[in-house]
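Exam revision sheet. Question 4 asks you to relate a sequence to its structure. Input first:
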Amino acid sequence: MLAGGAVAWPFSARAQQAQQPRQIGILVPFAEDDPDAREQVAVFRAELQRLGWADNLRVEARWAGGDRDRIRMLAKELAALRPEAILCRATPVAKALFQETSEIPIVFVNVSDPVGDGLVASLARPGGNVTGFTTVEDSLGGKWLELLKEIDPAVERVAVIFDPKTSPGGGTYYVRQINQAAALHLTAIPTMVTNAVEIEQAADAAAREPNSSLLVLPDVTTTSHRDPCLRPCSPAPTR
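Answer key, structure tokens:
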């Protein structure tokens, strides 16, 4: 009887293991009540359902609320769950996960410079356990300035707002292109921020200068606090 039980147990254990749902982790750098982020996660879940992948699958979503320390904590937490794969958004999130695991597949979106930030070996052959895609690149820096001049040819100063701790390459990724603004007769002023209050202060300071404008770089901090970024500023008293 003992021998029979010993033989039967592995089959029972394997059957139970086969029935256990697989896990996919999602680490979002924004708050859970962020409407855009919630919609994106909902679309991802719906697509899993449409493709027939939602059966026997559990999605573990974590929301960092724009907090860099919380991003690192949640990255450690998700890696400890040992999911089949982890989906993440933004450079600091991908870097935090990359530091926690070299085995779990990590798929990123909206990481501007995965090569420069050391996440992949190259775009053609990422290597390792990290891959993904992006819709932005550094050449956009110059394009944004061109758009500013088209909107208002009188613009002479541009306050370039970014958080060096969450922006790709510490802010240098886009600033390299932006520093070529001399050809457009613009003076680019790097303006570092870390929270909503500093974003508002930077916007107000730029608004007090004549012929000024704002260029808000896309990073976790500026996107998390995009309402202050979009808040209308009082115009300068003179052009």
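Marking note for examiners. Confidence is low (pLDDT under 50) at residues 1-16, 232-239.
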